[in-house]
Amino acid sequence: MLLEEIRDLIARHARPDMGTPIDGVMVARHDVSSWEPSMSGSVMALIVQGLKRLALGDRVYEYGPGQYLVSSLDMPVTGQFIDASPEQPALGFGLALHPATIAELLLQSTSSALREARGPTPSGMLVSEAPRQLLDAVARLLRLLDSPRDIPVLAPLIKREIHWWLIVGPQGAAVRQLGLADSNLNHIARAVHWIREHHARAFRVEDVAEISGMSPSAFYRNFQSVTAMSPIQFQKQIRLQQARLMLASGREDISGVGYSVGYESAAQFSREYRRQFGAAPSQDAVQLRGLGLVSLSLV
């Protein structure tokens, strides 16, 4: 069975940093269940063992063996593997999505419908059952980990194939918009990138709408549709996650961390940090340094 083969391959090749010799391919093993914040990245994530729960804004996604999630943009999420243990670890596969590859495949397609950005702006995250063709391609890609000689030649071909099955699969509408330069999703992607790069700066929504190439009303509506957050809420999530990374890396000056990510008040920073992570910045920093910050970049 394909899912069992994929599970065995991941179990053998998973390492702490989730990396593999194949560019853009991640395999993950998680032995504990804990809520951790991260940035999702633009990725397809397939669960082969265990159950994953993911929160994006006010939306909660849950997916298990044989299901996959597509994250269209790099968004602040909080995730938890349910009931993961050393005896029954959660196992997953991830592939970074490349808009240029999607655009090229759309151009090669003979279907004009695939090259059009029709319909409403999709959510930035969606969950589906993985079709057999997709599982087959993932299995063949992971088999290359046992055959390093073949990776440079065959891995790019199989990654393109996986992109294709995503394009024509249940989440095809969202994936195709990644490759269409004038799609609403790509307009929002520009805004997401700008906010991430300038998270410490105050901004007017109207100015970010202009950067995205949309009217303020259309921008606000589409931004919430994609991210499940307002632009200001999105900025706050980025600020708090950046602050947590700084504290985990050893920064001792709590007030300085808050100011560096854009907070003008130490009290406000501490209050919002506690609300987000369940502990004051100083307490959380001690815990993070003792346990090590868990990365869940494979959503």
UniProtKB/TrEMBL annotation:
- Record-linked Pfam families: AraC_N, HTH_18
- Keywords in alphabetical order: DNA-binding, Transcription, Transcription regulation
Query: Key word Flavoprotein present in the record?
Result: no
Presence of the UniProt keyword DNA-binding in the record: yes
* Range of residues in the leader sequence: none
Gene Ontology MF annotations = DNA-binding transcription factor activity; sequence-specific DNA binding
Name listed for the protein in its UniProt record: AraC family transcriptional regulator
Q: What is the organism field in this record?
A: Paradevosia tibetensis
Matching entries from InterPro entries are given as: Homeodomain-like_sf, HTH_AraC, HTH_AraC-typ_CS, Tscrpt_reg_HTH_AraC_N
Query: What PANTHER family does this protein's entry cite?
Result: ARAC-FAMILY TRANSCRIPTIONAL REGULATOR, TRANSCRIPTIONAL REGULATORY PROTEIN
Q: What is the lineage of its organism?
A: Bacteria, Pseudomonadati, Pseudomonadota, Alphaproteobacteria, Hyphomicrobiales
